[in-house]
């Protein structure tokens, strides 16, 4: 099970990073907080002060086609917001 799937790089997540030293990741929906914390600390070598998780519901989407209106949902996912110790940071692009 790959616990960390990818970092979330939205405007809202960037504002959290600049304001409160918090970083956002998309994680496996089966992972718990202890597994997520261990994976982030191992991958980036940082100390985590707090970890919040949430399940984000998928958006309802619809489009018009020749056959009529097609509606569905984008998949839901689990998101983790990590607060680091002061002075520490995560460089998302170091592991590429």
TrEMBL record:
**Entry's Gene Ontology cellular component terms:** ribonucleoprotein complex; ribosome
Q: Name one Pfam family in it.
A: Ribosomal_L23
The cross-references to InterPro entries, in alphabetical order and at most eight, read: Nucleotide-bd_a/b_plait_sf, Ribosomal_uL23-like, Ribosomal_uL23/eL15/eS24_sf
Keyword annotations for this protein? Ribonucleoprotein, Ribosomal protein, RNA-binding, rRNA-binding
User: Could you provide one GO biological process annotation from this protein's UniProt record?
Assistant: translation
Listed GO MF terms:
rRNA binding; structural constituent of ribosome
What the entry lists under PANTHER family is as follows: 60S RIBOSOMAL PROTEIN L23A
Partners and quaternary state?
Answer: Part of the 50S ribosomal subunit. Contacts protein L29, and trigger factor when it is bound to the ribosome.
What is the stated purpose of this protein?
A: One of the early assembly proteins it binds 23S rRNA. One of the proteins that surrounds the polypeptide exit tunnel on the outside of the ribosome. Forms the main docking site for trigger factor binding to the ribosome.
Q: Which family does it belong to?
A: Belongs to the universal ribosomal protein uL23 family.
Q: Give the protein's recorded name.
A: Large ribosomal subunit protein uL23
| Annotated source species | Pedobacter insulae
